[in-house]
Design a protein that fits this description.
It is a single chain. With about 160 residues, the chain is mainly alpha-helical. The chain has a domain of about 100 residues. Helix content is about 55%, strand content about 5%. It has a two-stranded antiparallel sheet. Helix 3 packs antiparallel against helix 4. The longest helix is centred in the middle third of the chain and has 24 residues. It is elongated, with a radius of gyration of 21 Å. It comes from Paracoccus niistensis. It holds the Pfam family Terminase_4. This is Phage terminase small subunit P27 family.
């Protein structure tokens, strides 16, 4: 299918871009929760998944459906740590078998991991710029982005 990927209704509401005629009333609404870490992760990765899942759940972002994305993030994070350790140990440039000086291959791995981590962090709202696109109500304030939209629209048409 051509064009932009459709945004979930909840994300449209949070961003303030929801329009009644474009909403999907049958869209599933997963419950915020802290899912169990996947079994294939090692002890350090399990600790990181648990830490991040609890943090994200406190902010209403984590659901059991997001466990796979968070596990992918942690796997990439571990790979980045390992690649960074090798870059630190060997340096950013190394000698190849023929004696030529080349970029350390682990530097390319680390850079690729950073790019992948940035994409996933943005999906979870873990970067300052991705958080600027999210509007949340003040504590105790009933947040109804559609009502907010209607009230702003009425003020603009005067």
């Amino acid at each position: 299918m051509a064009g932009r990927k459709p945004l979930p209704t909840q994300l449209k509401l949070v961003k303030g871009t929801a329009r009644p005629h474009r909403m999907n009333p049958a869209e599933p609404q997963p419950v915020v929760s802290v899912p169990a870490p996947p079994e294939h992760l090692d002890e350090a990765a399990v600790a990181k998944v648990t830490e991040l899942a609890e943090l994200l759940a406190r902010h209403g972002v984590m659901t059991e459906l997001d466990a796979g994305a968070l596990a992918r993030y942690v796997v990439i994070w571990r790979r980045w740590l390992e690649a960074e350790a090798e870059v630190k140990r060997r340096g950013p440039v190394v000698k190849a078998a023929g004696g030529n000086i080349i970029q350390n291959p682990f530097l390319a791995v680390a850079n690729k991991c950073l790019a992948q981590m940035g994409q996933i962090e943005s999906e979870f709202g873990l970067t300052p710029s991705s958080r600027t696109r999210i509007r949340m109500a003040a504590p105790g304030e009933a947040a109804d982005p559609f009502e907010d939209y209607l009230s702003r629209r009425g003020k603009l048409s005067c």
